[in-house]
């Protein structure tokens, strides 16, 4: 009885305040994004007048049509998409394979390999020598500058190695007795059991590749190879918003006056963000686990 | 036949697939992490782009002393320490408070929903968020409109055009983007606290605030300590993408942090030797900080992150 009374007197008001507080917090996160979404679905010139808060005033898909008709932006999405898929596959498979190899305690030279990697976590040549390396390797102005330098990450390798080592050894051992080699064991036994860490790493690498704009700022001059984030960055940071329409060559639509550079920018940003926002909730249970493994190791 | 009795060559033959993979990893590391290392030499010489890395005349510590007497240094250092300091204090405490409050939510589905939504901004790129922030903070943007409607301001100001607001915008955008994400480790630590402690506290008549204060907080204290120590080693580093996207000529006085300065004088102004000297100084100080904080962590929590 006494417990019940305490709940009613002390805890319920706090619970209500807490629930409402969290509601406000969600609003603080979601409303600015909702605002961007409704602006992107509103007629451009009308939106510039302001005063749109909850719903588009003059609903229009012209901004999105303008984006999808624009060759430069579509090319940017194509580059970003190819980069995310190929880059993620290359990074997760290569880093994962190395993690599997270094996870074997009886690997000859294991201490050497580990030391070689740990040193790189503390020393680097800095931006300029690295820039010269990329140039000397002939990676400048090629698609592979996105993929190859991001194929391996020692810290991620440690996380994956820790996960592989935590798997029960019995299955690998019995497969070995049945005559399976290291590669066979990796693909048939280790990989199927490692989906949580594979999914986490795929998400982290995928988000990195999809969101990065800076590699192209440094190493790419050719417009055809620019990912969407770099195109957006140039629009956002390097030119005033008024310039956007000329930047992406849209004079025909501007003539019709249905869109403004601001509203097209918003539409492009919504499309850029949508893929990740739609994927991450499904991977949530994996990446929470992945982060914890990283923190135990790190 | 134990493995010890096998010859070196037999062991190597037995594990050759593993060796091939490990060597590929080592080759990648040597090319992308070790080959650039000697390039540090340009910090001690007068490097010219037209010549080789080792062709420049050796000038010793000239660039370093130039950096230490650089008239921009005090301002750059203040900006760096101020933004890092805000992230390390307010930016560090808010996720802990969020995790503690989230833990008190009783409806598990609601809790899960709040958590999922709190991660969302983490997945936005700084380019996109920068674009949004320029729009939200503009004169007729969301923030000014709301403040104006609430009669909190009389005239709207574009926040990013006034250098006095820059640190605030940097802190709040960081909080908005990363609070939920940074709370993950604290939430996990709270879940790891022994439930028997709560049960016996309930029997002793403790209320929820007392339980949070005397069980949860001490329970996650090691996590808090190690994360704080680890982060404080990076006080000279800034979130380059964030600052680079939000900075402009009007707020440059408050937004030029060390990483931005190094990049600007190096890549944009072409002073490669000087830029490398600045970067090297920062790396050396950061490494010393990391070694110190590792020792502190060893004393305080008995665990280290270096081995």
Search tags:
heterodimer; A: 298 residues; mainly alpha; MetI-like fold; 16 helices; 75% helix; globular; B: 307 residues; 67% helix
Description:
- The complex is a heterodimer of chains A (298) and B (307).
- Chain A is mainly alpha-helical.
- Chain A has a single domain (66-298), classed as MetI-like (MetI-like fold, Orthogonal Bundle).
- Chain A is built from 16 helices and no strands.
- Chain A has helices at residues 2-40, 44-47, 62-69, 71-102, 110-120, 127-136, 144-147, 154-166, 169-177, 182-193, 195-211, 214-219, 228-238, 244-247, 251-256, 261-297.
- In chain A, helix 1 (2-40) crosses helix 16, helix 3 crosses helix 16 and helix 4 (71-102) packs antiparallel against helix 11 (195-211).
- The two termini of chain A are 48 Å apart.
- Chain B is mainly α.
- Chain B has one domain: MetI-like fold (Orthogonal Bundle), CATH 1.10.3720.10.
- Chain B has helices at residues 8-14, 16-34, 62-68, 73-103, 108-119, 126-136, 142-149, 166-182, 184-191, 195-203, 208-232, 240-246, 252-255, 258-268, 272-301.
- In chain B, helix 5 packs across helix 8 (166-182) and helix 11 (208-232) packs antiparallel against helix 15 (272-301).
- The longest helix of chain B has 31 residues, at 73-103.
- Chain B is globular.
- Chain B starts with 7 loop residues before the first helix and ends in a 6-residue tail after the last helix.
- Chains A and B meet through helix 1, helix 4, helix 5, helix 6 and helix 11 of A and helix 2, helix 4, helix 5, helix 6 and helix 9 of B.
Mean pLDDT of chain A: 85
Number of H- or I-type helical stretches of chain A: 16
The major sheet of chain A is characterized as:
none
Beta strand count of chain B: 0
Order of helices and strands of chain A: HHHHHHHHHHHHHHHH
Spans of chain B of at least 5 consecutive residues whose pLDDT stays below 50 are none
CATH 2nd-level architecture of chain B: Orthogonal Bundle
Chain pair sharing the greatest interface: A-B, 87 and 87 residues
Number of strands of chain A: 0
Mean pLDDT of chain B: 88
CATH names the topology of chain A as MetI-like fold
Q: What structural class results from the helix and strand content of chain B?
A: mainly alpha
- Principal-axes geometry of chain A comes out as globular
Spans of chain A of 5+ residues with little confidence (pLDDT < 50)?
1-9
